[in-house]
Amino acid sequence: MSVTNGEPGDEALMLAYAAGDAGAFDTLYARHRGGLYRYFVHHVRAGGAADELFQDVWMNVIRVRATYTPDAKFATWLYTLAHNRLVDHWRAQGRATLQSIDDDDAPAARDEAEALTAPRTAQPETRAAAREVGARLVAALAALPEEQRTAFLLQHEGGHSLAEIATITGAGTETVKSRLRYATAKLRSALGDLA
């Protein structure tokens, strides 16, 4: 069993959960819920759809726990499930639909996303400035081609390596490098004045 900072690693926790330790699932969920939810919100941005996809992935984890084998990092396996569920969602929709969590029509999604992120200061100016920067980031992410956005979010939200992103998306490592390079260049161009 792997151990990180005195805590069992994700793979060990998943194996423990498969063996009947419900507390191991709680720990895995606590470790990965924020990043996974934000991954869906950044892609779908409709609160209800993001919630549904998020829950579907965790239900898949529960459903296949008995057959889980640690062939890759748990996070890679989890985000592969998430990516595949997202692709299924897009296929069912016929296209990707995006909605900002800052829209007045999405207060539930905004509340959920804010509950998962670090608290902001209570000063109105700081909140307004942060909202403006956030809106620009969301718009810049939405403007990226889907493959570039997926690679960027998997690296920056999920903390995945190039090889892990290649495994999750089914693309080659060099393709992932190119997608990340182009995504980073486009985001720098769109947000360069914030640096």
Q: What is the CATH C-level name? A: Mainly Alpha
Q: How large, in whole angstroms, is the Cα Rg?
A: 17 Å
Total number of helices = 9
Residue-averaged pLDDT: 81
Sheet with most strands: 2 strands, antiparallel
Termini gap: 42 Å
The tally of strands reads 2
> Which structural category do the helix and sheet elements fall into?
mainly alpha
Roughly what percent helix? 55-70%
Could you spell the SSE succession in H and E letters? Answer: EEHHHHHHHHH
Detailed description of the structure:
With 195 residues, the protein is an all-alpha fold. The protein has a single domain (3-190), classed as RNA polymerase sigma factor, region 2, helix turn helix motif (Rna Polymerase Sigma Factor, Chain: A). 70% of the residues lie in helices and 2% in strands. It contains 9 helices and 2 strands; from the N terminus they run ββααααααααα. It has helices spanning 10-18, 22-43, 47-63, 74-93, 107-116, 124-143, 146-156, 162-169, 173-191; strands at residues 3-4, 7-8. Strands 1-2 form a two-stranded antiparallel sheet. Helix 2 (22-43) packs antiparallel against helix 3, helix 3 crosses helix 4 and helix 3 (47-63) crosses helix 5. It starts with a strand and ends with a helix.
Question: What is the structure about, briefly put?
Answer:
The protein has nine helices and two strands, in the order E-E-H-H-H-H-H-H-H-H-H. With about 200 residues, it is mostly helical.
What's the structural blueprint in terms of helices and strands?
Blueprint: E1 3-4, E2 7-8, H1 10-18, H2 22-43, H3 47-63, H4 74-93, H5 107-116, H6 124-143, H7 146-156, H8 162-169, H9 173-191
Antiparallel strand pairs: 1-2
Helix pairs in contact: 1-2, 2-3, 2-4, 3-4, 3-5, 4-8, 6-9, 7-9, 8-9
